[in-house]
Amino acid sequence: MTPTTTAAPLPSLASAFGQPNYQLRVTYRGASDLHMEVWQRPTVATPHLVKPLRLGGLGGRPLALIEERVLRQLARSRVKLGKLPLHEPQVYSLTEEVALRLGLMFRVLAPMRSRDKMMACVMGIEEMGREEAAYWLGMALHRPNPRRVLAALRLLLQE
């Protein structure tokens, strides 16, 4: 019996330079129903990751409210969504700065319902520096009570 070999996926350009690798997964589910998720993929720079880590996701009405701002951030990162097939996820590579902001934005906005408060949070996250966004996302990902961290951030951003 001959052993079979499986080819490993080719590393991305970011992982070739020892940088974290981020992806945006976009799924079109029907009329005005879009869902976006930000994922961090394992690379040489992140040896603690053995499988992709979901940083955040948003869809439906909350995403529709901030879709223009998200698309503007994606355009700065040279990501153009174009026409999306129904129920087939499309994957796009993201820069670290855009991935941090979108991941944090999606986590903060997911449970919110008030449009005014949502927009205040979005504007606050857009004004954050890269280090501040990384700090808050790290706190939301690695703390024992991430809901408390996100609630505190929401309170700070709404004032």
UniProtKB/TrEMBL annotation:
Domain of life the protein comes from: Bacteria
Tell me the ranges covered by the DUF7680 domain, including all copies: 22-158
Recorded hits in Pfam families, A to Z, give: DUF7680
Under the heading InterPro entries, the entry gives:
DUF7680
Identify this protein by name: DUF7680 domain-containing protein
Originating organism:
Thermosynechococcus sichuanensis E542
Q: What is the lineage of its organism?
A: Bacteria, Bacillati, Cyanobacteriota, Cyanophyceae, Acaryochloridales
